[in-house]
Each structure stands twice: as structure tokens, then as C-alpha cells.
Fold these 2 entries.
Entry 1:
Amino acid sequence: MAPARSKSTEKRRNEFPDRGNSTKNQKVTEPGAMSLRQTAEEDARSKGYFQPKLFTAEYEENLKNQVDKAGPYPWGSITNLIDDDILRNVRKEILSEIHFTKKETDIYKVFQSGDLANLSGLSEDMRKRLPSLYKVRSALYSQAFRDLVSSVTGCGKLSGSKMDISIHLYNRTCHLLTHDDVIGSRRVSYILYMPDPDRTWKPSNGGALRLFDSIVPNVPKSDPYAQLSPQFNQIAFFKVQPGFSFHDVGEVISSKQRLSLQGWFHVPQPGDNGYIPGEQEKSESKSTLEQLETEELKEYDFPKMELNDISEQEAKQFTLDLTAEDNKYLMKYMNPLLMSEGSIKQLQNTFSENSVVDIVSFLNDEYATLFRKQMRHFELNEYPSMPSKQEEVNFPWKLAIPSHKRRYLYIDGKPEEDISTAQSIQRINETYADEQPNFKLTEDIFKLLNNEEKHDEVLMKMKVESDNDATTYNEVSASLCELASLFKSVAFGKWLYQVTKLEVLKDKIFIRRFRPGHDFILATKIDERSRKEDDSSFLDGVLEATLNLTPTTGWEHGEWGAYELCMMDEEAEKPEESEGKVYEDEAAIYRSSDSDESVAYESQACWNKLCLLFRDPSVMKFVKYISYDSPGSRWDITASWLCKDAEE
Amino acid sequence: MGLGRASKAKKQKKEKSPVKEVEDDTDTEDFLTVPLEVGADADDPLSQLSALWKTWLLSDRENELILNGVVNECDRLMRLAAEGGKEKDGETNVKRSPELYAIFGLALADSARFHTEDDENSGTAVKDYFDNAMGRVDNGLDKFGESGLLKFAKSSILMNRIPLEYISHMSFESKSNEYPDVTELLDDALELYREGSKDENVKLGQELWIFEILEAFNDLQEIVRNFGRDQSEEIDSEEEVEEEEMEESGQIVSLLDEHHPLYKLIGKLEKPDYGEFFKDQVSNYLKHTENNKQLKRKVAGKLGLWYLSKAEQAATKYGSGGKAESMDAAIGIIKTCIKHLKEAWSDEDPDSWVDLAEAQITYANLLPVDSKEQEHLYELAEKSLKKANNATHGKYTDILESLHD
């Protein structure tokens, strides 16, 4: 990664330095860290830039205690770290001298200093323009401070020559999703916060550093265990631990600027005090890269992506013509215009030419109008409130995990699963029955729940709150299940065949809800496990449909995220490198692209649009994190099918 | 088969034959359906232009191609009119009209926003667009001097020009001799609006862009009030509180010296003239929105919020030792405010619930402590706030907490 990049505003570039979760076959280099040893004189002088309290035995002991006792893994923070005047000057220098550009990918949205990506390589000119920043950099990498951090974290010696530090600005809606920071020789992560020095940063501003416990190594839990609301001149730090040091930066939800210096201390390099030959290699070999390859970790992926078999008899029916009865059923939901021969022909042409077709007004007007009203009413009057923690998600809704790959709510039409602990997940995997989904049954469960609640305490609570509009999720969920059943129907299968000319043989259907301030899916390729070892006559790729059912408006500008985006995996196109990648479904991607040319398809959250696309293995797909600022959830029904080409 | 392959093939095709690709694009992706007004003549080019202009106004206004379409069509019709006004078919008669000049000017002014980065000498800079826009409208006014539509159009162009072309380039150090007199320009814009509103031929409620002049005026006042605040990091917490108090009482805290181009305008903002103009004109516009519920809610909301800020100022005045009459005045204002915010209320818009709740709290604060009416208003407000907080997943937690304090 180059320290300086183009200044243009870019979207979805994947080179954020504060990332871990690396995937196999991806060459991950440490971004921009440089070797630069400071003189003994500089080193001694820089100790004076800290608050004097720091370097006493008592302070060190207290700090060590704090770190040792902290959860979910050892971490600590120091308030009033640097001389107040110096750090105020750093802030002023940065805001007046440095140009920030917005960068956005599947995992983050942040403003970075494009012309100063890594402060390790400060030029003479920049030193003159940023004298206080230079002082703080010296201080952070001074022997005294490194010794303190090393001692309290118990992580071993830290390099004084390998500096690795950059500036980040988080404005409203900026965020960085869960990752573990594990790359190369990183030993300790740190963040020195510089929001407005004269105002307390309140939790209601968002932007907290949130630390995640793990279900098992390399699988972070969904909800944070601890969080820190960053204050001016406060540093937070933790030992980088492969498989454990998961953290994120919560979305900034106010108009305040969250400025920070963020970096790493590295394993001692040759020439450094404490250098041990081979130590860096040992540290790297333990990294997440290796861990993530293991198949066992995929046991912790929910929802399961294996596609369900469609019976041969049913599959054969799909290729038959639509009957009057089929049309009658379909027209209960679908726009009648889509049934006409002309429309089908037109859709078929577009699909066969582009492998993608967007169908607006997919549901018929009458059905769509009522359904939209129902959904919006529910969103505005949801009772109990929208679930924001794992324990608040109630079956038949389920939570997608783990949080360094995905977080959203879904209904899969299958039995309840307890994913709260490693043991319960193990039980599910061991006793995992290849149960066929049944959306009709799930619909009935919701209807039943809805009827029961007319008599139970929920209604009482509504009355206590004296809000007669209060609405539980049961009715709207039942309607969503009814629509999911449409996708499972033979009639729809026939219509789909008419449009795509593809014979579908396996399927997977989900109802999904992406909640503001919580949910996303990082970029993944097709999960090749879906096809298992069987039939090689399947087409190489997956037919996918997304029925967008977001009832709110105003998403077009993209600032609230929640868009679905397909991008080309350029590496996969190079045959010599793509070997062995078929089982790769990991979320994180590092490759950068200098333009949006790699975007193959993009769709903002919207109402009543069906997207049909055939995704080949070179295409990665993600759903961008949905902002707290958004007016409501992103809702959709998504389907995947493995197919044969009927015309071949 | 496959999106990846199709996308790659497209890219290659684009690289090989860019010209053909452009043609393809116009055939498919940029195809636009323009709905005509009910009763409009589909063959009349001016009706078509008007429909295209409305399509732009109702869109998210991010696609400059639509705007270019409007400008090009205006240009074509102007020329056609100059050449005798006959279309190729020889039947359609095109004449220059106030509407044609107005749309031409407004579309050019809207185009300026897409060219803020263009070089000053490029011929497509913000200034060029506004100069052109003013030129078209002035030409129109030469011909149709009494046209209210053209007066509104000129007012709109001026109102947008002030922030985009002038204020956006100002700094703390700017001097008034470096810029035109923005106060004078603003006063011209307001006078044109006032004159325009006398023309009964203009159907206010059908012209969304005319209401947007008032919104732009409101925004402009906000921009001027806050000018320089972002650059100033030196305000400490105490000063912040002091500032808020002063603002509530209607005073403006200015960081600018007397040679600054906005100094005079800030002085005028303290006087009631601009506020009164805004209130009168929004009230007048509101009368013309009976047939458009959505627009009516929007306009009533703006008016309600204007009254809310006046009521807060009046309440602060009363609270700091004012006489009983000043309380009566404050109650009068807040009652009007509540009336308009009720008109603006929508069961789909939690912001409208919160606006009304805030007005109810302001009203309750003016009533005798612990009186029944006060309690009732607090209850109503709290219920609305809770509901809005739930609907927005916690966006109003701070306000709710402050209500309990």
C-alpha cells in the first residue's frame, strides 16, 4: 500500500490500514509502516511531552492492574496523556494543514489524510508544517513510553524504529466494522483521541471504541463486551492477539468531529533493542490468516448457506408452461404486466444479454400499497422496540453471525437454533438435520403469536404505554413469509424459467432485515459449499434474486448505506492466482482499485424492485452497513438457485 | 453467462468503441418518461418543456443530463421562435413566453451547482451560469415587464447566487470591497418576490420552486448567522452556553468585523424585517396549497417552526423579568405555532411529532407550574417524543432526558 494516494473521493476502496480478518491467498502487507530510528536526543526530549504522572512506579502498577482486569481481552486507556498545549496544537495543525478525503468500502467509511497516509515518513516540509505532530510521534515511539506499554500489556519488547501511525477523521455516519487488527508484525494497537478539547465526548455522539469477546478464537460475538467513549488526549491500547482482539468503531451519530491518531507498535526489528531473530515470522504465522482457513470456523457461520435440494419432479414442472391457475396465483402478488408474453420476452432478452435485470413494480399496485403501509406502520410503531442486542432477537427471526462478516436479522423458515454459545452451536452442527424450510409454517407461527398476544401481557403493556398504534412484528413477519412462499412456489418457478431459461435444482430463500446502526454483510464470493461435491453439470455460478421491500424513501444518495453492490474480484481473473480459491467465502478484502470500474451492479435500498442476476464466481457482493441516520430498516427477500442451462 | 463476464465484456466493448457505447447508453439507461400535465397538448413543445422541467423539480436533482435537456430545449425553442416559430411539420407555432424565459433562467441557475469546481476561465464556472441565467430572465422582463413568473424567477436566481457564488468563497479575512453588496442583492430578491406575488396569474401552489425561494431565504439567513463558526475551534463550553442563550433571545453572536462583506447583513438579521417578510410570504403561500396535502404539510411545518423560534424568544424575554403582557404575547405566538404544526403533522413523519411536542413543551413552560393544563401538555409531548424515539431507534433520547430533568 502506497503512503500517498489519489485525492479523489472514492467509494469502497479496500485499503484501510486498520484492518485484520485477512483471508488466505491474499498477500497482505503492512500498510505504510516505515523504519525510522529516532536519535537518543530526540528520544530523551520527547519524554518531556507527556504528563509527568506517567512514569512513576505507582502509576505503572495501577495501569497494569487496569489492563489485566479489563475484558473481554487485556486493554487499557490513559487520560491526559500528552501535555495539553502540545496536543491542542497537534489538532490545530492537522485541521489547518491536512486535506481529508472520504473513503468508503464494505467495512468502513472514514476521512483519511490522503497526502499523509502514514506519519512514519514525515518529510522535512511536513515537519515544519506539523511541528507538534512530529513531537507527539516522537513521544509515542520513545523508549520510555514503549517500555511503559510493553510492561503494562506484558507483550514483550516493542520496536522503536518501525513507526506506524496515521490520522483518521470520523464525521457523522463514519464507522469501522469489526476486525482484529492482525497483520504482520503488529504487537500493540493504540488510538490517541483528539475530539474537541473543550467539550466532553458524550456516548450519544457515537464513535465509541467497542471491544468484542469471542465465541471461540476467530469468531467474535455479535454484541460488544466493552466500550470507550473517546475523550480528548486519551489513549486506548491493546495487545494484538490473533483470533481475539476484535473491535470496531461505532458510527458517529452527531455532527461532532472525532479526530484521532491511530497506529501500532511492532515486534522489534533488526537493530532494535530486544530484537529476536525469527520472532516476527513466528508472530505472523500465528496470525488470523492461517486460522481462517480452517473449515471448522465455518461451523460458526449463520445462516447456513448450503442450498436445499428441489425434488426432480418439482424441478421438471418448472419447465412447463404457466397454467391459468398459476397465473391466478401469481397475480395475487405480482404485477400482471409481468405475465404477458411480450414482457417475458423483453425480460428474457435483457437477462440473457446482461445476466442481470431490475424489475421495478414487481408486486402489483394493490398488494404493494397495502403491504407498504403495513410495513411502514410497523416500523413507526414497533413494539417492543427494534431489537438491538442478540438476546432481543426472537424466533422465528434469527441473527446472522459472526460479526466480523455479517450482522442482520433473517427468517429462513427452519426450526429455532440456539447460537448463544460455542457449545450450543456445536450441538446444532452435530445434530444439524437437513430440514427443508417451510415458510407457510413460519407464517402460521407468526399468526398464532399475533392471536395469542391479543390476550397476553404485551397488549397490557401497550395499554400501559397508552399507545394504541403499538404493533408487534408478527403481522408484518407473517406477510413477509407469505411472500417468501411465493418464491418457493411452482408457479413462480415456471415464471422464473420463462425469464431466465435456467433450470433451477437447488434453492435457498431468506427474509432479511438490516437494522439502522447495526447491520451489514461484508463482501463475499459465492459459497461454493452450496453445491457440495455433486453434479458437475451445474452452471458455474448462482442465480440470485433480491426483492427490495424497504418502505421508506430517500436512499438514493447512498449516505445511509444499505445498498447492495456487486464487484469484480479482479484477482480471481488471474488463473495462476485463483487456484484453490473455490472454498473461499471470507469477508475481508484488501485489494484496492483506483476507480469504481470494478462495480458490476449496485442497487440502493428501495421499495418493490426485484433484481434477478446470475452471479459467476468472479463477483463479490456485499450489503453496506446501514446508518443510524437512516429513516428505517432495509428489508428484502433474497433467493439463490443452482441451475442448469436449459438451452445447452 | 454471468454478471462478472457480462460486465467485463461491456467494459471491453466500451474501451474498443466508445462512440457506439454512448449511443447505446442514450437508447437504454438514460431513457426518461416525462408525464405531461392533465389536459396539456402533447404536441405543444412548450407543454413538453414544462413537463420536463417539472420532472427535474420532482427528481432528486442529481442528474445533470435532465437539466441539460431542459436548457437545450429552451435554447432550441428560443431560436425557433426567432426564426418564425414554425416546427418542421409547419403546424406548431412556437412563441417566446414568460414561462420559456423563466424556465431557461432557472435551469441555467440550477446548472451552476454542478460546476463549482470548474475553472473561472473555463466559460462554465458558477459565475458564467448565473450571468447567463440573469441574462435570459432580464431579456424576458424587457419583453414581459409585468410578468410575476419572471420576477419570481429572477428572485430565485439571486437567492441561489448569493450563497453559491459569493458566500462560499468568503473567509474571515474577506473584505466588502471584494464582493458585490450581498445585502442589496438580497433586498432586490425579496422585492422581486413581493412584486411577483401580486401577479394573480401565477398559481403559487403549483409552482414548488417559488416556495423554494422562501426556503433558500431561510437557509441563507442560517448560513450568515453561522458564518465562521465551523472554522472557529476556540469557543469554550461556557461561551457556547452563553451563545445559545443569546440566540434564544434573538441576538446574533457575530465573529466578523465591520469591513466583512456579511457584516451589514448580520446587522439586518437582528431587525424584524426579514422575519416578518418570511412569515407573511409563507402564510400567503400556505393559502394556495389546499389542493396539495403534502405541500401543505411542508409549508405549514416551515411556518410553525418559524413561530416556534419566535415563541422561544418571547418566552426567554418573559422569563428574564418581562411583564405579563409579554407572556400573553408569547402564548399568542405559541398557539399559532401549534395550529400550524398540527397542520404539518403526519403519521409517517416522526420529525413532525417532535416539532409539535417541542411546541407543546414551550407552551407548557409558559403556564402556571403544576397547573392541570401544564401537566396535560407535558404528557402529550412526552408521549409523542417517546413514540418518535421508538420509531427512530433512539434519535430523541437526549430531548426526552432533558424533559425529565
Note: Residues 1-17, 20-29, 575-595 of chain A have pLDDT under 50 and may be disordered.
Entry 2:
Amino acid sequence: MTGVEEAVGRAAGAGPLLLGVRHHGPGSARAVRAALEEARPRVVLIEGPPEADALIPLAADEDMRPPVALLAHAVDEPGRSAFWPLAEFSPEWVAIRWALEHDVPARFIDLPATHTLAWGTQEDEAGVEGESPLDAETADSEGDSAPGPGPAGLRIDPLGVLAETAGYDDPERWWEDVVEHRGVGKGDALAPFTVLEEAMGALRETYGSGGHARDLVREAYMRLQVRAAQREFEDGVAVVCGAWHVPALRRKTTVAADKALLKGLPKVKTDMTWVPWTHRRLSRISGYGAGIDSPGWYGHLFSAPDRPVERWMTKVAGLLRGEDRLVSSAHVIEAVRLAETLAAMRGRPLPGLSETTDAVRAVMCEGSDVPLALVQDRLIVGDVLGEVPASAPAVPLQRDLARLQRRLRLKPEALERELELDLRKDTDAARSRLLHRLRLLGVAWGEPAASRGSTGTFRETWRLRWEPELSVRVAEAGVWGTTVLSAATAKAEADAVAAQGLADVTALAERCLLAELPDALPTVMRILADRAALDSDVGQLAQALPALVRSLRYGDVRGTDTGALGEVAAGLAERVFVGLPPACAALDADGAEEMRRHVDAVHGAVGLLGDAPAAGQGHLRARWQSVLRVLCGRDTVPGVIRGRAVRLLLDDGELAQDEAARLIGLVLSPGTPPADAAAWIEGFVGGGFGGGMLLVHDERLLGLVDAWLTGVPAEAFTDVLPLLRRTFSAYEPGVRRTLGELVRRGPGAGSGAAGTGSGIPGFAAELDTVRADAVLPVVRLLLGLDEEEEHIGNDLVGVTG
Amino acid sequence: MPVSVEPTSVDPSQNGSAPANAGAGASADVTEAEALRPHAEDAFAGELAALAAQDERPRPARWKLSPWAVAMYLLGGTLPDGTVITPKYVGPRRIVEVAVTTLATDRALLLLGVPGTAKTWVSEHLAAAVSGDSTLLVQGTAGTPEEAIRYGWNYAQLLAHGPSRDALVPSPVMRAMADGMTARVEELTRIPADVQDTLITILSEKTLPIPELGQEVQAVRGFNLIATANDRDRGVNDLSSALRRRFNTVVLPLPETPEAEVDIVSRRVDQIGRSLDLPAAPDGLDEIRRVVTVFRELRDGVTTDGRTKLKSPSGTLSTAEAISVVTNGLALAAHFGDGVLRPGDVAAGILGAVVRDPAADRVIWQEYLETVVRERDGWKDFYRACREVSV
């Protein structure tokens, strides 16, 4: 016990033990543990929201695995929230765990989230984006190294100033050299803190609050808390806070002055819980701004017992071997040597991340950045996912969902029931959006079902059933955001980034429109455009196009802005046009059949897209027709595709009947192998596209086909037969019968219309007005042109609606 | 962004056969006075001397300068006494640091890169700064024999006196080993695979056995080897993994910014144009910028505004190729056009550089034309010219 008293006694002269740290610094974390071990305080005070005091014991729970974050959110407005992420190597986490292990009370002493979240409201007015889960509060809780968003120009970066003074151009590197890379303390465990405090003290003298105006208020609150703790525990008080705050906590001020600063702070009712966090979100690139580039590397520095560089290189080698790269132990040795020599040359005490990365690149990756990207992704950032025990309080997403369920009068029931939604009604549209968003989040409460009766696009049918495990799903989804909207948006964006194929992204775009996630759409669209640009499989592109065009039209129905979508669709179409002709060469029968389906799909999509009013899309049809022309004239293209191309041009009226007849004659001439010709015929008149009617009405075409068929030599006939059978058996019985009769009657013996030349074959040259008039009443009835009929039609709609 | 626009070919007089003690004798003075292009250690002798005089950091055995000073020699800077060191290589600092450090760790250094990224230039200056001699050079070709890397024989001596050290003709690598100097191997991947593998013993055992004499040459401390290789050329002999493992690899990047690349291209085009007596084109810069933009976009697989991704064709599209496209265009404009470089003059050249694989590359090129070039402001003429040659 004497040792303890000695340590405490030494600290006593200077008041409470103030441990200034850098958030998420492994060296700081290690130093904090050593200092706590030595000083053995009776209470540990930590910079963090005091509302979370009750949650501290959960940190000792077996199921609690960092990285996790403390989440504070406004009760009435789950979208307003702030996170305090804690990794295994965060000094705060180390302090909490130390306190729990030694049965010492731990307390958070920062300004309560009640106030900081209310501050967020005011910042909204100042123009900081309100939906962002990281307001100034959270940014500042890491802010000692990274200036937060918003009025960053005013703030100073204390580390930057110190690093510059020390002659470093990179504050991160300076900090690494001076603090993080110090070995486990030889000698005085408190020395690093004293030195750092002096440095920060000098800075604060020069810069005051350094533009962090709110820090003064927070520090006043912290001082009051420290004082209270001192009254209770006398000198056994240790404080873990950002190094920046240490001089302020040390300062002697009057209680009255501190209380005056805290007067009249805005308030909002808040709630706190633990949520799981990931290394990826700790890193700066995620946009969550936790402020560190390399959580994986820091985690390694913290957890490696000794020889961090050697262990790191071995880890890298393991990863690269797992990816089938040839990396031997000799590589590891050389990489370590290179890293150490580099560090010596750059005048650093130990190899840092940049030296190890350079060494890995030169030795293990053969100078290439491609495998290095893998190292960056898997190790330097890392894939660690935190876990939170089930006993943690409910996440705000659950509250938001409950609120929405109440408002939309959708009760979660275990019994399956069917729900009919009319999207023209506001409540029903909101319900549909909610269900779609939940589906995106993996909460399969409702399954879309086929509508009975009406088939209008404004109608949706859902099968609802609330399973108990869905609550777990909701809790899991809490990681994505605090409201259903923001969570679904974040999830959709993440899904888009992770999506494998082009079709997945297209499907996602469709779901984003259904769930009305306009904020996710730009990301999804960007990724869609990127995937489309890099995808060289025309088949995939052609598959994606129809879904995209469908989304485009559906988006119009819902009144969503689909400009970006249209642009992407047009770009996709262009790529299909360029890639299609080469892709059609040298296909086998199955491949050709598949490609024919793609051609059909693209044709339909281009038709719809060409109708779209957006500018710059009018030329698409013309371009597509020129592609079709190329297809039908190229001998290397399989017959079935050529035939289909001719047919599509003919249907569009782009190819004159005479020209079509010439092409058919060409294909069916004796020079063409019969199998090819049969395939061509299948493409031309096959499938459910009314090909049979074409033959019925155009006797010249029928004559050509008939003449060719009778001319097929006996030995080739058995080869051709299956193809022809497939073509003609798809026709309606009536069509087949008519065709049979026409053929039996023989060519040229028809109505004689074929002889009139200029008229369309099968039709008279002149209109027979008397017969045409007879049809008119029926047409009027169908189109609802008659006023009286129209009333009746509307009434009917009203009844069913 | 390398500033070097030196040709990658090397003056044959540098190549191995002549005694390479460039520092001594009257012959060296003559070379210096008349040489078309003096060696790095001669051209920058003043800077090297100034660096050596003020360099107080520890030097590895037989190094003329400390690693720190070598890096400074390459990257440029100002010495405490005010001597200005000109930058020899303008590019990422990291690359030079890794290269110098590699030489200090006695691992061999492999400089990789597409043509025109100053590989030879960097290797020459490294050797000059480290050993004060950049002439211990083996030029790799498809016909490089084993003798060029190990040793040959003076057959008159051999026949007259039998095998002895006097009859042996050492290669530059062997001399470097004996004297603890830096040897250079140019175009390592052009050397046949079996000859390449001669290097394995030299690099791992640091000895060169001479079985004919029952002797060996052991490398003296300070010996190291810099190899350059072209990683995207056709007809290269890939390094065996055993050899590759003995090198630390540094990839010299293509110019980082469009401005730097435009600068390199226009400067080089100007030089070539003068030597070909082409009339100077007044408005060429716009067209050069366009060529560089097209090359960079296709090479990087993304448009300069970073908004559209693109497929990359199979060709290298290096700066050197951009230079040749523009020179070609200038020649067209001078001899068949009105002397002004126009889109039509470069379109055919670009097509030739981009479309190397007729099937895949053509699709990539047409996609690029239709989705990027057509929409771009002020590129209408270029689009039309490209459509004309593409169809």
C-alpha cells in the first residue's frame, strides 16, 4: 500500500491526476493504463456524456466487444443524435475497463448530451447539415486532431501547431513519433502526460480556446464535476480527457464563474445507448469523421505485445498468401529491414505506417498498388465489427419505427394478413414507403404480393406478418441510422457499393425509387454508371436496361425526380449500341437465342426511353435503328438475330416491305445453308410477336417462305424440321389453320390484292368506308370517347377505388 | 512526374567493353569535351562535390554520399552553404527514398515503368551519386549473352598462356563486385530468361564462381545492382520468381498532373520537330492538350472531371506514345495540311495508339467517343475527325 500512497501523494501536490490523451491513440491508451496502474485512483473521470454513466457497467459484459459507440439521441426526434465511438485502443475505453476491473467508480464528466444535442439545433440554423449523425459535438469529441465540419476555418489544430514547431509537416506523423511509438513506459508512467500538458498549456496561452468557443462551457462543466469528485474522494481522482482540455481543467477558477458560464443552456430530452461500431466507420474515409486513417494499424500497435513491425509484416504476408500471392519468410525479413532503414533515413525513431507501407509495396507487392489496396482495406482499416449485449437499451431506430407504426396505424401482428394499398392516398403511400424501406433494411415485415383484381401501377398488395425475431433485425439495423429513412438510405448506399453485378445495382435503384430514398439515389446512380462503364458483357448491360427504364417510368408515376436516372439509362443504351454488333458474332445456337431475347428487351426499352421527354434522348431510336440495320446486314451474325432485326425494323416502319422481301429472298436463296435459313425464319416470324399474322396478311412473304420450304433438299429437311416446328407451333391455332388454308390454295390465288402493287399486301388499295364506319361505335366505346360512356367509366373507377 | 525527356537508348560507347575508369587518364578528358552527352557524374560533378563536402551523416561502406544526401541529389534542394542542388527527378519523394534505402540495405533495386518514365535516368543518377560512377552498365537485349553478366575470355591470351586471370575479361557486374560499386542492368526483361538467372547467384550469394580457374570473385561491401525493366511491353521475358524475390521493386509512375504531362509532351515534340526540320506549329498546344487528355483518361479509366468511368484499352498509352502521335500529326500538318495542327491530323494517330487489339479496343474506343467525346464542349471537330477515321 505504501507504493500507492506514494503515487497518490505525488499527484496530490498538483490536484487531480489529469491524463491528457488523444482520442483513439494506442500510445495514449497504453500510457493511460500504465498511469492508472501506478496512481491507483479511487475514481476515474472520463470525457464523455454523463447520461451514459448508467451504461458503463455494460462495458464489462461478456458480449460487449469494441469498437462500439455511445449513442445519444433526442427522444422526440431520433434523427438528432451524436456518437462517441470507442475502439479497443481508445484511452477512454481502457480507462473504463480499468475502473471496472478494479471496482473503482467511473464517471463521464463532459457537458450532458441534453445540452450538446440542443446546441445541434442551433447549428442547424447556422447552416450545418441537420441530418448528419455527426454534429459539432461528435466531431469535437475527436476534434483534438481533426477539425470538425462546419466553421472549421476558425478552429486551430493544436497538434498541427505543435508538429509544425517540431519541424514536421504532418501532425499525424509527429504524434506517432512522439507519443504513439514510445514503448511501454520505461520509468515514470506519468512523464508523457506532464510533457504533453506543458506543451498544450503553452498553446492555450497563445490561442485561448482556439476557436472552439463551446469548449469553454464544456470545460467549466468538467471543472465542476472534478471538484465534486474531489470533495468525495479527495485526491484519489484521475481524469482522462483530450490533451487540449488539460490546461483548462488545471486552471483555478471560482465555482461561481463556472456556474455563470453554464447558465441558460438549451435543453432537449435525450436518451443514450451502446451501439455496435466498425473499424471502417472509425476511419476518416467513411465520412463519419472519427478522425483516424488507420484504425487497423492502431489496433495492431495496441494489441501487439512487442516487435510491432515484425508482427505487422507477418500479418501482411499472411493476408497476401491467403490471396495466392507468393510471399515467403525471406520477403518478411527484407520488408522489415527496408522499413527500419527507411525510418532511419527519414529520421524517425521507429518505422511508422508510411514506412511499413512503402516497404510492403517494394518488397511484397512488386511495386504494385493493387495488392497494396487489399492491405489498406483489410489490415490498415480493418474489418472489425463491434458487438453490444442484448441488454443494452433500445436503439432509436426502434422508437422511430414504433412512432411510424402508430402514425400510419399499422400494428405489428403475428397473424398474417393482406394489405391493399392505393398509392394515390397519402397514408397508403407512406405505408408502402415504410414497408419498402424496412425490406431494404432486412426487416421483412411485409412481402409484396400479386395484386388481385386491379393491375394499376397505383395499387400494391402486401402480406404482413410480424415475427418476433424481426425486433432483433430492427436492433441490428440500428447500426445504419437512427430513423427508418436515414438507416434505409445508408443501407442502400452500402449495398450499392458492395453489389456484385450490374443487375443487382439496377434492382437496387428500382427499390430506392419504391422506398423513396432520394438521398441514396445519387450514390446508386453513380455506382450504376461506373459498373455499366466497366462491364464488358453486353448481355448484362442489356438485361439491366429494361429494369432501369421501368424504374424511370415508375419514378414518373410517383413524381420522383428521375433526371439522373434518365441520363444513366441513356448512357447504358449507348454502351449497348456500341457493344452489341461485335457481341453477336460467333455465337452458338443457345447463345444466339439468348442474344435475341436481349435484342427484344433492348428494343422495348429503347422504345420507352425514346418516349421520355428528357432532352438528348430523342436520337436514341435513330441510333438503335442503325444498330439493327448493321445487325441484319452482317453475315457473321446468327440467323435468328438477323431475322429478328429485320422484323423489328419492319414493325417500326423503318424498312420498306419491298426491302424486307428482298432480304428474305436473299436469305432463303439456295446459297444459304437450310439450317441458317430456318433460324432466320424463326427470328423473323417466331415467338409471340404476331409473326403468324404477318404471314397471313403478307402473301408475298408467305410465298417466299413456302417456295423456300418446298425447295429444301430431302436430306436437309430433317435438320430444318425441328426449328420450323418450334417456330410455327407457337402460333395460335386459328393462325395456323389460316396459314394452312392459304398454303393449300397456292400462291397468287389469294384475294388478288398482291397484284395492286402500291397497296399494302393483303389489303385493298382503297378504304372501304362503309365497312369501316360499322366498326366505329365499338371503337368509341373502348376508348371512352363518347361523353355518356365516360361518365359511366369514371363511376366504375370510383366504386372500385 | 519525371522531367526527364532523355531518350531511353544509351550511347553504345558506354557499353561495357571499354575500361570504365572514367575518373582517370587523358581519354576521360577527351570524352568530356566532345561527348554528345556527358555522364551524370561528370555533368553534375560540382553538385556531387558540394554534397560530399557538407555531408556529415554516416555513409555505408564505399558510398560517396550518405543515403540522405543521395536522396537530396536526386530530389534537389539547397545546402546550408547556399549551393543549389537541381532536382534530377521530379516526382513522389517516397519513390526516391525507397530506392536509395533499398541500395543501402544491399538488396538489389528494380525500377519498373512504362517507356518514358525516366527509369534509365534515375538509375544513372543513383549510380553516380552512390558510387561516383554510372558506367558499369549492361545493356539488356534479346541477344545479351551470359558473358555480358559474368565474364568472357580473351581468346588470344587463353590460347597462348592457358586459362588464367589475365585471360579473363570481366563484365561490368564482375568489376562492380570486385570494387564494391553499383552495377546497372538496363532492360532486364529483354534479356533471355536463362541469362537473367545468372544474376541469382550474384544477388543471393554475392559471389561469382569461376569454375575454369577454381576461383571465385566475392562481392566487396558496397556492391549493389540497379536494374530497369519495362513492365508493359510485348515480347518481354518475365522474371523468374526466384530472381524477382531478390529485388525490391519501385514502380516509376506516369506524370501525375495533366499540366506536367502536357509540358513534357510539348517540350519533347518541340525538340524532335526541330531535328526533323518541321515548321513550328502556331496553335499546337490545344491539340497537344487534347491528345494528352485522351491518353490520360483512357489510361486512368476515368474522365478528368472524375465523373465517368471508362474502360482502359490494352495499349500502354504512355507519354512517349503521346509524343509520337503529336509528332506524327505535326508532320501530317506540315507536309499535307496548312501547317496548323488540327484534330484530323492527330485522330488517326490516336486511333492507332488506342486500338491495339482490333476487337476489344475498338469497342472501348467507340464507347469513349460516344459517351465522352461527343458531349464535350469544343470537341465537335475532334469527334467528327475521329468518327471519320474510326468507321
Note: The interface with chain B takes residues 326, 328, 330-331, 334, 337-338, 341-342, 345-346, 354, 358-359, 361-363, 365-369, 529-530, 533-534, 536, 571, 574-575, 577-579, 582 of chain A (CB under 8 Å).
